[in-house]
Amino acid sequence: MTRAWWQGAVFYEIYVRSFADSNDDGVGDLPGITSRLDYVKRLGVDAIWLTPFYPSPQKDHGYDVADYLDVNPEYGTLEDFDRLVERAHDLRLKVLVDLVPNHTSDQHPWFKSALSSLDDPHRSWYHFADPKPDGSPPNNWTSAFGGPAWARDDASGQWYLHLFAPEQPDLNWWNPEVQAEFEKIVRFWLQRGADGFRIDVAPALFKRPDLADRPMIRNRATGALEPDPAFSIFDQPQLHDVYKKWREIANGIPPERVLVGEIFEPRRHSAFVAPDQLNMAFALIAVPWDAARWRRLIDVDRGALKGPGSEPSWTLSNHDVVREVTRFGGGILGRKRALAAMLLVLGLPGQVFLYQGEELGLEEADVPDEQRQDPVFFHSGGSQKGRDGCRVPMPWLRGRPYAGFSTAPTWLPEPAGWDRFAVDAQLASYGSVLRQYMRALALRRRLATRLADQLEWCPAPDGVLLFRRGALVVACNFGHRPVELEVEGRLVAASDLLVKKISGRLKLPPSSASWLDASIR
Ligand code: NOJ
Ligand code: CA
Questions:
Q1: FRET pair for 306, CA 20 to 30 Å: which of 99, 177, 336, 370?
Q2: pTM for the full model?
Q3: Which of these, 297, 296, 285, 303, lies nearest to 341 by C-alpha position?
C-alpha cells in the first residue's frame, strides 16, 4: 500500500510567539520562523504546525481570533505568510495552520456587532441566553480556565457562553451562516498554500441545544458533589457533517491536505478519524513514566483507529502541558527518560508531533508570578500556574543575552543560564539531546520503507517494553535497574551511551531505550 505524505510523518509544532524573532522586539514572528526553517529541515521533520498567528488581542495568545483572514501585525503580514510557505515548500516541508472554530475573540467584528443589539444579525452567531429566574447564569457549565462558562452582557441582561476565557465567546455552530463562513476560511488558507489544519477544540463545536444543567453526582470515595462525567455538553452528531464538508473542500484543492483534530480521547478518535473526515487526532502521552501504563495507552490509542493505514499521532508535549523532562522527574533523570521516550515514540507506527524545544531537552521554565501571561493563571486566581512554563522563547545562541532569541527582553523571561541549552551549543556537541533527536529522525527516515504498521509486543521483564515493527526492534527500560534482554539484530540507536549489544544480548541501563535493526544479525 502506498502511503500518503502525512502517514508516518513527523510534525514539529512551532509556537509562533516563542520560536524566532526577526525584528528584536522580544516576540517571535513569521519572518523569524522563515529564517529558521533550515534548522527545522536539518532537524529532520516533515511538516510544521504553526500556532495561531491571526490578529488577536492575545488574551489567550492567539486562540482569541479577531480576524481569520489576516496576520497579526506583531507577527508580520499575509505576504510574510506566503514567503514562509514558499520557503517551507522549497525545503519540502509541509505547513499546517491552526484553525480556531469553537470561539472568536470578543474583539472580533462579529461579536462586537452581536453585542450591539438583541436583533443584530450576528447575535445568533453566538450563544446568548437569559439568566435563570434567580439572576444566575443560564446553566452550571464551567469554563476550562476556571469559573462559570457564562459572562453577562450588561446592556441586554443576557449572558453569553465561553468555554474558555470570557474574551473567547463560543460560536453557535447550529447557525448555518457560521458553518458557511468557516468553509470560506478553510478555502482561503488552503488556496494560499497551507497543507492543512490543526483544528482547535475539534470535538466541541456544537453544544447540546437544550443548554441543560450538568447533573452533579456524589463521589462515593470523597462524598463531594462532582459533575456527572456521563453528561456531555457537546458530542453532537452534526459535527461529522462539518468535517465531511471540510474534507470535501480539501479534496478539491490538490495536492493532498490534512485535517488534524485537537481530540485526545480514544473513543472520539474512533468517531472522527476516518477517510471522509479527519486524517488524525492526537495521542497525547500524559501518563507517568511506567511501562505498564505506557503499554496500555499505546494499545488503547492504536485500538481506537480502525481504518487501514490509520495510526495514532503520538505526542509527548505541546504548548498546553508541562514539558516532559519535568513530568518525568526533571534534571538529569527527567532528561534521560525523555530521550528514552523519544526513541520509543519515534519507533511506534503512526505520526509523531514534536513540540519546539523538546529536541533541546528543555524543562518547564520557572516563570515568576508577576511575569506570567497565561489566562489560566489569572482566571484561577493564581491557584493554577498555567502554561507559560512550556512557552518560554527558544534559546538559540550560547553566551548571548536572552539566549540569542532577541536583543530585547523577551515576552516571557528566559530563565538564567538557559543559553546552555541553545541550539548552537547543542549542534556543536555529539552527545547533546538535539543531536540525538537528529540521529533518531534520520534513522527513522532511512528505515521507513522497512517499518511495518503492525506492532508486535515481545515478552520482556517487568518495567521493560519490547516490540517489533518489521525490521525495527525497540526496547525501553523504564526501571531503576539495568536489564539484559535476549534480542537479535544490530544496535542502531541508543538513548544512553551505556547501552551495549553483545552477540544476542542487549544491556539496557535504567531509563534508556534502544533500536535494533533486526535485518542485520
Ligand atoms: C487548545 C489550545 O491548544 C489552547 O492553547 C487554547 O487555550 C484552547 N484550545 C482554547 O482555544
Ligand atoms: Ca518580533
A1: 99
A2: 0.97
A3: 285
